[in-house]
Amino acid sequence: MATMNNTKGKKxxxxxxxxxxxxxxxxxxxxxxLFIMIKRICSDSAPAARNLFISTVLETGQLKFLASWxxxxxxxxAVIDANRMExxxxxxxxxxxxxxxxDNSSVDNxxxxxxxxxxxxxxxxxxxxxxxxxxMLIIKDPSQVKVGTxxxxxxxxxxxxxxxxxxxxxxxxxxxxxxxxxxxxxSPLGVVVQDGQxxxxxxxxxxxxxxxxxxxxxxxxxxxIDGMSASExxxxxxxxxxxxxxxxxxxxxxxxxHFVPLIINNEARKLKGQGSGANPRTVIGQRADGAILLLVTxxxxxxxxxxxxxxxxxxxxxxxxAVNAANLDGGSSSTMVYNGQYExxxxxxxxxxxxxxxxxxxxxxxx
Length: 367
Fold this sequence. Notes:
Blueprint: H1 2-41, H2 47-57, H3 65-70, H4 73-82, E1 122-129, E2 132-139, E3 145-149, H5 160-166, E4 171-174, E5 191-194, E6 197-201, E7 209-215, E8 220-224, H6 230-240, E9 242-249, E10 251-252, E11 257-258, E12 261-264, E13 267-268, E14 281-287, E15 292-297, H7 310-319, E16 322-327, E17 336-338, E18 341-344, E19 360-364
Antiparallel strand pairs: 1-2, 2-15, 3-19, 4-17, 4-19, 5-6, 7-8, 7-9, 10-11, 12-13, 12-16, 14-15, 14-16, 17-18
Helix pairs in contact: 2-4
C-alpha cells in the first residue's frame, strides 16, 4: 500500500511539475513577446504608435516606468511636447447657462430626437469611438448632482456603489484626486466641499489643482486654485457659494500627465496631436439648459479598447451640447453606478466588476 501511495504521489508530482513548466514557459513567452512589441513600438519605424504608447503610460499610476525603460528622456519629452494642450485661462461665464428643469421635451444634440428621462430625471446614453466605449448620464436637474464622500476620512475608502447607496443616491461616478496606493482610497487630495462645508482643505499640497463642482445656483464651476492657501480657499468657497466640489490636477510632465479643462464657455481646448494618451476617463460637463453630463469610458484593454484621448472627450461632449466640461480622475478609478448596478466598472482585473476604493464621488440624488 505504501509503495502504491509513493508511486501515485510521484506521478502527481511529475504532472504538477510539467504543468508548472508549461505555465512558466508561457509566461516567459508572453513577457518576451510583449517586450519585443513595445520595443518595436518605441522604435523610429512607428512614431505614431510610440507617441500614443508614451503619452498613455505616463497617465498611469503604476506603469510610468515603462516609458523610461523603452524610450529615452529626449523621446519622452518630445512626445509630451507633441501632445500638449494650450492653457485655458477663461473663467466660466455663468450667464451662458439657463437652467430649465420643468421642460420634458429637450432635444438631444447628438441625434436631434426628443430626450426621454427616467422617473428621476436621468437619461443614459452609450458613446463610442475608435478606441473606447463609454456611457453618459444626462441629469436634467443639476440640483440633484452632489458630492458623496466617506467623510470622516479614514485609511480606507469605499467602492462606488457603497458611496452612492450611502448618500441615498440613485447614480454616481468616481470623483476627485486621492491617494490610490494599495487601493486603500481613504484620503482625498486637494480639496473637498460637501453641502457647503469644507471637509478637506489642502489646495497648496499639489501644483496645478483645479476645483470642479457646483455652486448654490447649480452651475458647474471649474476654477484654478493653484497656489491658494487654506484660508484663501475658505474665503473663495464662501464668496463663490460653492456647495459641492472635488479637486483634480493639471500637470503635463514625464512624472505626471493630468489635465482638467476641456470646454469653457463653448470653446474647446486647443490641442497639439491628441492632447493626451488613451485611457479610461471620467468627465463632468454642463449644457446650456443646465443639464449635467457625467461620462465614463473604458480602456487599458477592456473589450479590446485602449481608451479615450482628450480629443475624443471633447468631441463627445461637444456633440452632446456641453458648454463647460472638465476631466476628473480616470484610469482604474473610472466607474459608473446607475439604479444599483455597475454600468462601467474598473478596468483593473481584480476589481473589474466593482470599483477601487474611493473617498469621493459625484452622486445623483432621486427626484
